[in-house]
Write a structure and sequence with these properties.
Blueprint: H1 3-20, H2 30-37, H3 65-95
Helix pairs in contact: 1-3
């Protein structure tokens, strides 16, 4: 892929994260709904070994929930893009 195509794709994904993600439902997903309906949701709750830096897709301490959600999506997309680029670079080195 050309660099221009990669940056275009990154821009599209960032736009989705910034403009579409805030409208996502706060309702539980299908797995959570079934777990609550069948009364085993509490069994799956454990104290995490590592705490998420962006719990529930929000910026901790952010007073504005919408802006916190947008910032978390933006940070998440850039983080995953960076990890993907690092893995691609390592694989490219191995091939040479």
């Amino acid at each position: 892929m050309k660099r221009r195509e990669i940056l275009l794709a990154l821009g599209i994904v960032l736009c989705l994260a910034v403009f579409i993600a805030p409208f996502s439902s706060s309702s539980p997903d299908g797995l959570e709904w079934v777990a609550k309906k069948l009364s085993f949701a509490k069994k799956g709750e454990v104290v995490p070994t590592l705490h998420s830096p962006l719990p529930d897709y929000r910026i901790p301490g952010s007073e504005n929930e919408l802006l916190g959600n947008i910032a978390a999506g933006f940070i998440g997309v850039l983080t995953m893009f960076g990890i993907g680029c690092a893995i691609a670079a390592l694989l490219a080195r191995q091939r040479k």
